[in-house]
Amino acid sequence: MAAMFINTHSPSFGFFKFSLRQVSLSAPPSRVCTRFASRRRFSFHPHSSCRFDNLVSRCSITNTDVQFNQVATEDELLEDFSAVESNCSVPIVHLKSEILETESLNLLTEETYVDSLLTKLPVLSEEEQNALAATPAHPAGLYALYASCVAGNVVEQLWNFAWPSAIALLHPSLLPVAVIGFFAKLAIIGGGPLVGKLMDNFPRVPAYICLNVVQASAQLLSASMIIYAHTVPHTSTSSMLLRPWFIVLVLAGAVERLFGVATGVAMERDWVVLLAGINRPIALAEANAVLSRIDLLCEIVGASLFGVLLSKFDPVTCLKFAAGLMLWSLPVVVVLTWLTNKLSTGVLDRAKTSQTYCKTSTGEPLPDDDNIVDIGLEAIRHGWKEYMQQPVLPASLAYVLLYFNVVLTPGSLMTAFLTQRGLNPSIIGMFSGLCAFMGVAATFISADLVRRFGILKAGAIGLLFQASLLTIALAAYWSGSVAQHSPLLFFLSLIVLSRLGHMSYDVVGAQILQTGIPSGKANIIGTTEVAVASLAESVMLGVAIVGNNASHFGFLATLSLLSVVGAAWMFCQWLLNPTDEQRRLFSFDPRF
Q1: Which residue, 262, 524, 530, 568, is CA-closest to 395?
Q2: Is the pTM of this model over 0.70?
């Protein structure tokens, strides 16, 4: 017996579905899965409560067993209709037998035809799936994004090296640089969630251009203040901290860092995901690797360029060159940003998911009053709540824990320690340069790790590699052999190699967060994460200030190692005990 559904479309009566269960045709039994349509006129008998005439209908048979034995006569159907009418709440349709005789209804009785339909379904091979996963969704837009990053990062990295160098030439003390850096961290901790929330509530392209304009303006203002400081007589350090130009420099530096972090979060957590494709893990991993290479290479080029200029010209001339470079790069970045959206067919104009427009974390509207303090506090509270509720929180916390490592890494504290050990400055510079080049190499390795092992296992490999090498390095330090020249170089070489693991997780971890965080919350969660990382770094710097003697270096190194080991343990525990949400987000990963 067959269940035949007749879908009737009418301008007057809308859409109706009727079930006719007493149709049998004469042929061998067969399992047929097909669909046919005919534009015919049906005559309806008065066995239903409603009468329809001259309606154009569409018939379909799907997934039904058809027994081909005999064709029921019209009289038999009429008898059955009278019995069914009392129990049927929908109209009964009488299908005349002559309709079924026309061209044998074009029914498919050949099983081979059904088989041929199945063989024609497009099924990608494993190689084709890998090729698709490695192909960006918008390659032209992605290349324009890379060009925009180069234009913006060269200036930003040059300025990050220029301003502390110019300030250090004013006074030998590290206090002015430390004060500017401290307030910049406070601005990120307090203002990061607020800026991230505003970015989530505005269109991507105008918001990003606005951030670049404010950042460039803050850089120009800072350069003007430092140039002014070099033209006035030098004073003592304590009196310099109270000068109006220094106060303006501190405020401008805090704004510049805050908006610089916001542009980086928008680029790395939101834009690249849309352009590469969130469901194309290999392409996204390679895009993240390219962005990291650009950042590291711009850091090397910017520092080297300003260092060469500073060795040949006076500081004021170098600062004027930096200011001119800022003015030149801003319109280039704006044009490339517009071109990125144009080449990607407007993908950046798409609405963001999981929006939080004008609402707090509890779903209530933001305060209507003009009290910016209340709005800011609510934005910070909302940012922290969203951060703690994100589905990939362990991966983010592992990333934050790495910021507690302020000693076993190239930085100011390691530079001071090596200088006090009497190491040649050229070797110290080579150490920093090798760490940067290891970061570039890690961007190539991370993409290959994602291709071979998947995103999650690649992240675990990077963290375990870094923790293992730093453990050996710290053991070498506590053995006391680093007091000699060769063991000290061995100690430094282990730290250099550990940067491979650190930067590999930096790239892979960014992709994990890109995959797990909705685009509508990418900015607020990303800026809050940077604020948490800045807080962790500030805590360790505070500990270093208390234990500022070189003899306490081993204690600080131990704390740094524990933070790296803790990050590896937390991530591996998350990987070994996946939740249903984790399985859903990373269903394309070989781990699942």
Answers
A1: 568
A2: no
